[in-house]
TrEMBL record:
SUPFAM superfamilies: DHS-like NAD/FAD-binding domain, Thiamin diphosphate-binding fold (THDP-binding)
Ranges where the Thiamine pyrophosphate enzyme N-terminal TPP-binding domain occurs: 55-127
Thiamine pyrophosphate enzyme TPP-binding domain boundaries: 411-562
Key words, A-Z: Hydrolase, Thiamine pyrophosphate
Keyword set includes Hydrolase: yes
Name of the protein: 3D-(3,5/4)-trihydroxycyclohexane-1,2-dione hydrolase
Record-annotated Thiamine pyrophosphate enzyme central domain positions: 216-350
GO molecular function terms listed in the Swiss-Prot or TrEMBL record: acetolactate synthase activity; flavin adenine dinucleotide binding; hydrolase activity, acting on acid carbon-carbon bonds, in ketonic substances; magnesium ion binding; thiamine pyrophosphate binding
Similarity-based family: Belongs to the TPP enzyme family.
GO cellular component: acetolactate synthase complex
Source lineage: Bacteria, Pseudomonadati, Pseudomonadota, Alphaproteobacteria, Rhodospirillales
Length: 609
């Protein structure tokens, strides 16, 4: 057996650089890295030696780097991914939030934090977390509950099994999620005689598991017996490349489609059977059908509470759930008729087996009424009042083409975008709402641009999320990956302020002006974005925003546009109740009244059937 002598870190990088996806591309788009004493000598030297064969990208914040890596994988429909390496200590724990985001959203990312010395000779080292009762614990144990696979590398030869296991998880459609390899810093530098065969290029083909035949039969029987079925399209439709198959299935059998946040853009917005968004932030057209549907066909969705209206949306007395999902865990939720299999293959099989079967026709006026409502709230204002989020969305929509990708994550914007954005192409809508993580937006936009360099990427972000994490705007300039960032300044956390007031509370500690302060906040977002190298300007109206968008699309580098908005309005059309617990006892009448309304709404919940 021929061998080659390399350090453990060099071996890891060489192995990762020759892993291929089913299209013959390198599975990894490189490695994001911020170096510290836990990874600079071992992994840093290995990445330097790899050069362009495994490019290293430098970020400004560990969480931001991981968000960019995750967005890259999502934009690539999980066919490519990135690695992220940090030092031990705060560099590592900064990534835990991103790991949770990837875990919730079923997205692949390889996290490689440095770890303590395996030989323990210098213990405790700088930044080491010590457990008084367990000598094996380090800060990296925080990753265990938010990793789909976790390993601690305490010997070089452990990589011979750990790396293939990591790749198996990253490329498995059902197990896909974050992988953490906590890499002891002394082990990174240790040499070992590696089999040369370990570094042979390996292609990881996308598996498409077929559903059990009995499950297919059960699904066919359920669909044929349904009078008013509704499809809910989730992110799994995109990851399975099943958008075309979904359209064929829906049109062949005349079944309307509603879209989750992750599933939005599975069908073009103007498709006759696309009724729009579903649930708490849903279109009135989709929710009206959902309320009376006797069969909910959930395709590639984990049916979280925003999708189901906290399980109060589906009111049909005999309604059933048919869940098609590649992950058995998701397919079996809520006593569903489970079909565990690949969405693309299974939809095609169902289409063939159902033959000419067609469901009852829906009233086309439902969708047209919703589109009219969207056009109304997104139209440019006629007065001088501060614009709403919806009006800003309308301006951005009118200023982009169908190839643009809109990116968002947290606050009120995702709800408005879910309702109002008209997505024309698959993956044109990139909103992280599984974890709804403030600070994802700009870093995520950078990752999307790296995955889709030929498409305009427009990041829409509130001032609260911008302040949470903005440093990767500078990274986008440094790397030459242009993004357009529209910063909506409503002076605080406007979305949660509205929720606070809707549950009977006073505006408190959310808007900057109602939070405790000695000096009123006066942040100059334009100057701040400009200081990071972006072209930046502030506009004072919707018409000026549209003009600025023209300049931004022509610009040669990242561009930031700031606009003041009203923190109070949100789109009243559509939507559904969401379960947010209201205090049972309060001295305030408004809270007591909200509690009465809350208890009445709870009676509509059907979580167990």
């Amino acid at each position: 057996m021929k061998t080659v002598r390399l350090t453990a870190a060099q071996a890891m990088v060489r192995y990762l650089s020759v892993q291929l996806n089913h299209d013959g591309e390198g599975f990894f788009g490189g490695c994001w890295a911020i170096f510290g004493h836990g990874n600079v000598a071992g992994i840093g030297e290995a990445l330097h030696g790899a050069g362009d064969a495994f490019p290293t990208w430098r970020g400004h914040n560990e969480q931001g780097m991981a968000h960019a890596a995750i967005a890259y994988a999502k934009a690539a429909n999980r066919k490519r991914a990135m690695a992220v390496t940090t030092s031990i200590g705060p560099g590592a724990t900064n990534m835990v939030t991103a790991a949770a985001l990837a875990h919730v959203n079923r997205l692949p990312v390889l996290l490689i934090p440095g770890d303590v010395f395996a030989n323990r000779a210098p213990d405790p080292v700088l930044q080491q977390v010590e457990d008084f009762g367990d000598g094996t614990i380090s800060a990296n144990d925080c990753f265990k509950p938010v990793s789909r696979y976790f390993d601690r590398i305490t010997r070089p030869e452990q990589l011979l099994t750990a790396l293939p296991r990591a790749m198996a998880v990253l490329t498995d459609p059902a197990e896909c999620g974050p992988v953490t390899l906590a890499f002891c810093q002394d082990v990174q530098a240790e040499a070992y005689d590696w089999p040369e065969s370990f570094f042979a290029p390996k292609t990881w083909k996308q598996s498409r598991p077929r559903a059990d035949l009995d499950q297919i039969k059960d699904a066919i029987a359920a669909i044929k017996s349904a009078k008013n079925p509704l499809i809910i399209a989730g992110g799994g439709v995109h990851y399975a490349d099943a958008c075309g198959d979904l359209r064929e299935f829906a049109h062949r059998h005349n079944i309307p489609v509603a879209e989750t946040q992750a599933g939005k853009s599975a069908l073009p917005w103007d498709d006759d059977l696309n009724l729009g968004s579903i649930g708490v932030t849903g279109a009135s057209s989709a929710n009206a059908i959902a309320e009376n549907a006797d069969l909910i066909i959930a395709v590639g969705t984990r049916l979280q509470d925003f999708t189901t209206g906290s399980w109060a949306l589906f009111k049909g007395p005999n309604r059933r759930i048919l869940s098609l999902n590649v992950a058995a865990y998701d397919a079996r939720k809520h006593d569903a008729i489970s079909v565990v299999g690949d969405a693309k293959i299974t939809l095609a099989e169902l289409t063939g087996a159902l033959g000419d079967h067609r469901a009852n026709a829906i009233d086309p006026a439902l969708k047209q009424s919703w589109i009219d409502a969207v056009d109304d709230v997104t139209a440019a204002p006629t007065g001088n009042a501060l614009p709403t989020d919806a009006q800003v969305i309308g301006a951005v929509q009118r200023s982009t083409d169908e190839n643009a990708i809109v990116v968002c994550a947290a606050g009120g914007l995702p709800g408005e975008l879910h309702k109002l954005w008209k997505a024309s192409r698959p993956n044109g809508y990139h909103v992280e709402y599984g974890f709804s993580c403030m600070g994802y937006e700009i870093a995520g936009g950078l990752g999307v641009k790296m995955a889709c360099p030929d498409r305009d990427v427009v990041v829409m972000v509130g001032d609260g999320s911008y302040m949470m994490m903005n440093s990767e705007l500078a990274t986008s300039v440094m790397l030459g990956h242009k993004i357009i960032t529209v910063i909506l300044d409503n002076r605080g956390f406007g979305c949660i302020n509205r929720l606070q007031m809707a549950t009977g509370g006073e505006s408190f500690n959310n808007l900057l002006d109602t939070a405790r302060h000695a000096v009123p906040s006066a942040i100059d977002f334009t100057a701040h974005a400009g200081a990071m190298g972006a072209i930046a300007e502030k506009v004072s109206s919707i018409s000026e925003l549209e003009e600025a968008m023209v300049r931004a699309r022509k610009a040669d580098r990242s561009y930031a546009i700031v606009i003041d908005t009203d923190p109070l309005p949100s789109t009243e059309a559509g939507g559904h109740w969401w379960d947010v617990a209201v205090p049972e006892v309060s001295v305030r009448p408004s809270v007591n009244e909200a509690r009465k309304n809350y208890e009445a709404a709870l009676k509509n919940q059907r979580p167990g059937d």
